[in-house]
Specification:
The chain has 1092 residues and is α+β, with helices and mostly antiparallel strands. The chain has four domains: 156 residues, Jelly Rolls; 483 residues, no CATH class; 191 residues, Jelly Rolls (Sandwich); 99 residues, 3-Layer(aba) Sandwich (D-Maltodextrin-Binding Protein, domain 2), CATH 3.40.190. It contains 34 helices and 40 strands. The N terminus and C terminus are likely disordered. Keywords: Cell membrane, Cell wall biogenesis/degradation, Glycosyltransferase, Membrane, Transferase, Transmembrane, Transmembrane helix.
């Protein structure tokens, strides 16, 4: 019954106006959306100039590493004056000259050689471009030394000196800029420095805002799209109405709602973080003054646009607080919203309401498996929860349109699909909601066309088709409005290109890598991640097979007992398969992307429960039970591991799930028994009563529910136990944040030795030197040494190589041995005693020159301060974990040990410098001595020791504070919420004063992500600063490798940068060139064509 009050004569005229509005608004919205990326933008440009009023150093690390262009002019009089003053003088450098990377990555203009043979060298990116005798710069005709570098050419010239020039046309030799550094000193206005100038045009292509034109088109397109949706609503009013589902049934709470909401709320507080929570939170926090959201950790400052629009929400939330539960609050609401979509719209569309067993089992299966997906994948800041909601919501809207024969739900599905796609590339699966429903949608469109063009004329029919399709096209083109409102097409192209070249970029045909990780023994392959995905894949096959069998039986004219609506079930199965295929196109292959299937996977499992109910033979049910049991067994052979730092203290972190016996093994045996039962039934039929009871339909269909309940119970139980027993667990930190305590994460439980040099204990006896006290009186195979001895320096440098980087990598050349670096933790090499065991023939040999078969020492007694809680000792080398022990005494004068020796532990087993520690100090102990022993000393087994220390401890948060800029590696950000990440502005970053890194295993896997090859801050810091590792300890867990804190000491002190900024209008197609400097392979190439 029509609700329109217009007369029959007015209805055609109204329909005609609606067609015109829909067509015009829809077409204009589409054209506007297509034009938005190409429209001009306002770019804030910046130019770095030098010198300022005083000639000296300037720190100005560029986010992009390299400038758009670089120019330098040094007057000849300044060169000549400096040449007569000192040897080895640096006239100009873009990287601190004390860095071993200055000549490898930057520009260095320096004077070398003795006074009578002194020459000027210009070294750029490892290539000596020009060498000129310094005396020639005193000639009256000499004007200036100039350097000009762009993407296309590089020229160096000493103007006024014949033959003193070099050119590299076609070479991209722009230097990396950390700042401008010089040994020149004076005022800019001094006559000697007249004409001294350097300038660098900073790459600010991403620092843009929409122009008035672009903003106007964007707003107009959005308004026109809404108008066209209104026209679709008018079209729907003319369609016959279907019976509506009473809204009360959707709003009424259910038991599953209470269980799901409660479980999501609990897990939100005690659950583990996902892999990129720290990454995304730091991107949002650091962008407050940057003008745009740079990727921060990689890609030379390129943003993630057009993906990740929801980062803006996180950025707004960081202004209020940075606690993990607060930042993840939108995700909690999204997960609840996904469940409501699933329970109120998706499941009623899939399951026939007449079948109570199907609706009951399907509903609970969906609820519990959805929780399994969320617990494992969707409890963090990654885009998968947004994509899961968007995909399921788009499918529900499309199905709503099909069921009610209305167009507006299809338009809303288009808007939601656009928002879903711009969350991340995985969201591309959302468009299959329309593709897979093409046949019923075509029938729906034809129905509306028939009403809009009842006369059937070709012209009117074509206009009707255009009037219907234009608004729908506008909604799907909204992806451009969401993703390109700030960034231009040219900037997007540059960002996409550098991500492909720098990588990781994995081709579609290596998709098996993702599943290999899922089956690996790591957080990517934990039992919590395996179970929901393997269950979804199993039941996806079961449902597809059931639908295929039902289709065959229908063709044969036979009835198939099925509690599923065939059309919607086919479409959701097809959408899930299509989603798995879309994952093949993603450039990376982690298991995180499976979180996008939270809603779809739960729906498939619900359909699978109904499909299992339709299995008619006990033999087939036995085969399904065997497959399910084997699948659960495969999931339970994985560990209960989580991403750093949530895995600390987690039960079953390094073992399979077991309670006396491995659960995986138990399920394997049960699966084998089910196979045997199926074989028995195959041979002797289905008549055995006992098998019919054990293989009853509802019991077998409940298998997924039982497995999901067991998985959830283990996850909640293990995490609750971790929260109760581990003070520094993620759950404990989240609870502290929720209850309002001043919570700074790991920074409150990591302790720092505030002054390692002063913490060194004094010998009880003052006889002999401090080194003699450490060596003891009866040592063999050990000798006193110093870092200044060449053989000792070589060994120490070799042991520290894992911290420096591979010597064969041009991006990480091994720096020359520096005595200040050869004793760890900031200990003074000139004031710290050092003893070393035999290494080849360097120590501990007998008169015949043969290495002693045993190296051992017992130091003298060292006085312990009162109430000593921890004794530490810096050691380096290759030695077994029981090589160093401590003895205590309550009577140093008597010298009798108080109990047996106690082994010192090391949190980090690497050969570099380790801070051995012991926290179990006898109550009455007044002195301590060191015992060290190696059974086979030599080049492959040696140790160097410093005296014991009693650290004066303070928390890491107290040492670093809230104000100093910090580089927290991307695994660490939310673990240290009170520390301020270093910022960036106008393309220049502020130099961090500290660096926080994760444990060695995690760091070894991910530290290269931030290196110079990837365009991350690691490549800037290693050139700009010298890192001194602080001795740190995890409170209550001395032997745990929590990570590493380093103080970053600038290699050269400098003033703030002198920047000139302005706003210019750029074409949307403008692209000054590739980012970086032609990064290909494992080194920096000079061929920019490799980036295209």
């Amino acid at each position: 019954m029509s609700t329109s009050s217009s007369s029959p004569a007015e209805q055609p005229e109204r329909a005609s106006r609606a067609r015109a509005v829909a067509l015009i608004a829809g077409v204009l919205a589409v054209l506007g959306a297509i034009a938005v990326p190409f429209l001009p933008v306002k770019e804030r440009t910046a130019e770095l100039q030098w010198p300022s009023r005083v000639v000296g150093n300037t720190n100005a690390p560029l986010v992009s590493y390299f400038p758009e262009s670089f120019d330098l002019s040094v007057p000849c009089r300044a060169v000549a004056a400096q040449a007569g003053r000192a040897e080895g003088s640096t006239l100009f450098s873009t990287i601190p000259p004390s860095s071993s990377l200055a000549t490898t990555r930057g520009l260095v203009v320096r004077l070398t050689g003795p006074q009578d043979e002194r020459s000027l060298q210009v070294v750029l990116r490892g290539e000596t471009l020009l060498v000129v005798e310094a005396a020639k710069f005193a000639d009256p005709g000499c004007q200036a030394l100039t350097v000009h570098a762009t993407r296309d050419t590089t020229t160096v010239e000493a103007r006024g000196i014949a033959g003193a020039s070099a050119s590299r046309p076609g070479s991209n030799l722009r230097p990396q800029i950390i700042g401008f550094y010089t040994d020149l000193a004076g005022m800019r206005d001094d006559e000697e420095f007249a004409g001294l100038a350097a300038k660098a045009a900073i790459d600010t292509r991403f620092l843009t805002e929409p122009t008035g034109l672009k903003l106007g088109v964007l707003v107009a397109s959005a308004v026109l799209m809404l108008v066209s949706l209104g026209a679709l609503a008018l079209f729907d009013r003319a369609a016959p109405r279907r019976r509506k589902v009473p809204p009360r049934s959707r709003l009424q709470p259910r038991a599953a709602d209470i269980v799901v909401t409660a479980a999501l709320g609990i897990w939100h507080v005690i659950g583990a973080n996902t892999a990129d929570d720290n990454y995304i939170a730091t991107i949002a926090r650091a962008s407050s003054g940057g003008g745009y959201l740079a990727n921060y950790y990689r890609y030379f400052g390129a943003p993630d646009d057009p993906w990740g629009w929801f980062y803006q929400i996180i950025k707004l939330m960081t202004a209020t607080g940075v606690a993990s539960p607060w930042l993840r609050l939108p995700v909690l609401l999204l997960n609840i919203g996904t469940w409501l979509l699933l329970s109120r719209f998706v499941l009623p569309r899939l399951l026939r309401s007449a079948s109570k067993p199907a609706t009951l089992l399907g509903g609970w299966s969906a609820a519990l498996v959805f929780l399994c997906f969320v617990f494992a994948y969707d409890n963090g800041l990654r885009p998968e929860p947004w994509i899961a909601f968007g995909v399921l919501g788009s499918w529900a809207l499309v199905e709503r349109g099909i069921a009610t024969r209305r167009l507006l739900p299809l338009g809303l599905a288009g808007v939601l699909a656009s928002a879903t796609l711009t969350c991340g590339p995985t969201g591309a699966m959302v468009y299959f909601t329309l593709i897979l429903a093409a046949k019923p949608l075509l029938r729906l469109l034809k129905e509306h066309i028939a009403r809009l063009a009842p006369d059937g004329g070709r012209g009117r029919t074509a206009l009707a088709w255009a009037a219907v399709l234009a608004p729908l096209a506008a909604t799907f083109c909204a992806v451009s409005l969401i993703g390109s409102w700030r960034i231009s097409y040219g900037a997007f192209r540059a960002a996409a290109t550098v991500k492909i070249v720098v990588g990781p970029y994995m081709h579609w045909y290596v998709e098996a890598t993702r599943y290999q990780q899922l089956m690996g023994f790591s957080p990517d392959g934990s039992f919590s991640r395996r179970f929901p995905m393997l269950l979804m894949l199993l039941l996806l096959i079961v449902v597809a097979g059931t639908l295929w069998r039902a289709a065959i039986m229908a063709r044969l004219g036979q009835h198939s007992r099925l509690d599923l609506r065939v059309g919607p079930t086919r479409r959701i199965v097809g959408l899930t398969f299509a989603g798995l295929l879309c994952l093949m196109l993603t450039p990376t292959k982690p298991t995180h992307h499976f979180g996008a299937f939270a809603g779809l996977g739960a729906a498939v499992v619900a359909a699978g429960a109904a499909a299992v109910l339709a299995i008619s033979t006990a033999r087939t049910r036995a085969l399904y039970a065997a497959a399910l049991l084997f699948m659960i067994g495969l999931a339970y052979t994985a560990p209960n591991d989580w991403w750093y730092p949530a895995g600390y203290g987690s039960p079953f972190r390094t073992t399979a799930i077991r309670f006396g016996v491995s659960l995986g093994t138990v399920f394997y045996y049960l699966g084998g028994l089910a196979i045997a039962v199926a074989f028995f039934l195959h041979l002797f039929g289905n008549g055995a009563r006992v098998w019919r009871v054990l293989l009853e339909r509802r019991l077998i269909a409940s298998g997924a529910v039982i497995g999901a309940v067991l998985t959830i119970v283990i996850e909640l139980g293990a995490t609750s136990l971790q929260a109760l027993t581990v003070d520094n667990s993620a759950a404990a930190r989240n609870l502290a944040a929720v209850t309002g305590r001043d919570e700074c994460g790991l920074a409150d439980v990591v302790l720092v030795d505030t002054d390692p040099q002063k913490s060194i204990l004094s010998p009880v006896s003052d006889q002999g030197s401090a080194a003699d006290a450490l060596l003891g009186s009866q040592a063999r195979g050990f000798a006193i040494t110093t870092p200044q001895e060449q053989s000792t320096a070589d060994l120490l440098a070799q042991a520290n190589l894992p911290d420096i980087g591979p010597a064969v990598d041009p991006l990480h050349p091994t720096p020359p041995a520096d005595p200040a670096d050869l004793i760890g933790f900031g200990l003074d090499p000139t004031a710290t005693p050092l003893v070393m065991s035999a290494a080849g023939r360097s120590a501990g040999t007998d008169p015949a020159g043969i290495v002693a078969p045993i190296a051992e020492l017992t130091s003298r007694w060292y006085q312990l301060p009162e109430n000593t809680a921890l004794v530490t000792l810096a050691a380096v080398g290759y030695f077994p974990k029981n090589a160093v022990r401590l003895e205590f005494t309550d009577d140093p004068a008597n010298g009798k040990a108080q109990g047996p020796p106690v082994e010192m532990v090391a949190a980090d087993p690497a050969p570099g410098w380790r801070d051995l520690r012991l926290g179990e100090i006898p109550r009455k102990a007044k002195a301590v001595r060191v015992l060290a022993r190696l059974d086979l000393p030599g080049p492959s087994q040696w140790i160097a020791l410093t005296p014991p220390r009693a650290p004066k401890l303070a928390t890491l948060q107290h040492v670093i504070g809230r104000a100093d800029p910090v580089l927290a590696d991307w695994e660490d950000g939310l673990g240290f919420p009170c520390m301020r990440p270093f910022g960036y502005r106008d393309g220049v970053i502020e130099l961090p004063k500290y660096r926080i890194s994760p444990d060695r295993v995690t760091d070894a896997s991910f530290h290269q992500w931030m290196d110079a090859y990837g365009g991350g801050p690691g490549g800037i810091v290693e050139s700009a600063a010298h890192a001194v590792t602080l001795p740190t300890y995890l409170r209550g867990a001395w032997d745990v490798d929590w990570g590493k804190a380093q103080r970053l000491i600038p290699r050269a002190q400098g003033g703030p940068p002198d920047l000139t900024t302005q706003t210019v209008t750029r074409s949307g197609l403008a692209n000054p060139g590739p980012l970086g400097s032609g990064v290909v392979g494992s080194s920096w190439t000079t061929d920019p064509s490799k980036l295209h």
